[in-house]
TrEMBL record:
It is found in: Cytoplasm. It comes from Anaeramoeba flamelloides. It is an enzyme of class 2 (transferase). It catalyses: [protein]-L-isoaspartate + S-adenosyl-L-methionine = [protein]-L-isoaspartate alpha-methyl ester + S-adenosyl-L-homocysteine. Its EC number is 2.1.1.77. Its main location: cytoplasm. PROSITE patterns: PCMT. The keyword Methyltransferase applies. This is Protein-L-isoaspartate O-methyltransferase.
Length: 236
């Protein structure tokens, strides 16, 4: 695998992610080709849309580097595949931010499922909705995706339980209990977690019948903190 790269088109970005081994699943690859990253960054970053790096989107939030999104989709490829499920897939995206990863998951479950994005900064709720309307409007029009304002640490009980919960910010004290409660038995959670050492790791958890999570550490990462609205606003 290589590290950061700079591409000029969405297709060349995805091609590089494939070449680097970040993503292999054909459905996930097709989803990323449908969700053009340039529609999900700030105007000042448009010319760098296809660089493999994170960008700030305001209010202390970021859109992650493409390799992180690709790797996370690959982790969740079976859980976001309606053909492998008997019931509609329910997904929660905590810290939906730009709406990019929310849209990618929406494309994957669009045959029979839905995604709720949750943000506690109203301006980011509007930003995410507007980006999806611009880049992938059918996901909003068909009610496959909705983005709401709220504290993502508390989840969103109305659509629970979830097959998948994705968290786009780093939890300092472990995975929030409300998110674990709202996960289906057999459901998956992907979340960055900060350890006592200060190091962050991307964790992948599977909820067992006893309600506990079996957790795997995927890799070291660096994400903005999963915190209160007040503290987040102090970051910018």
């Amino acid at each position: 695998m290589t590290s950061f790269f700079r591409k000029q088109t969405n297709d060349s970005l995805i091609d590089q992610l494939i070449y680097d081994g970040r993503i292999e699943n054909e459905r996930c690859i097709a989803a990323l080709r449908q969700v053009d990253r340039k529609n999900y960054v700030l105007k000042r970053n448009k010319s760098s849309s296809y660089y493999d790096q994170p960008f700030g989107i305001g209010y202390g939030a970021t859109i992650s580097a493409p390799h992180m999104h690709a790797m996370t989709l690959e982790l969740l490829k079976d859980d976001l595949n309606p053909d492998l499920k008997d019931d509609p897939i329910s997904v929660l995206d905590v810290g939906s931010g730009s709406g990019y990863f929310t849209a990618a998951m929406g494309v994957l479950v669009s045959k029979n499922g839905s995604v709720v994005g949750i943000e506690h900064i109203p301006e980011l709720v509007e930003f995410g909705i507007n980006n999806i309307k611009k880049g992938n409007p059918e996901l909003i029009e068909k009610a496959i995706i909705k983005i709401i304002e709220g504290d993502g640490r508390l989840g969103y009980q109305e659509n629970a339980p979830y097959d998948v919960i994705h968290v786009g910010a780093c939890a300092k004290n472990g995975i929030p209990e409300k998110l674990i409660e709202q996960l289906k038995i057999g459901g998956k959670v992907v979340i960055p977690v900060e350890k006592s050492s200060g190091q962050q790791y991307l964790e992948y958890g599977i909820k067992k019948k006893n309600g506990k999570l079996i957790i795997s550490q995927i890799c070291g990462v660096r994400f903005v903190p999963l915190t209160s609205k007040k503290k987040q606003l102090q970051l910018f």
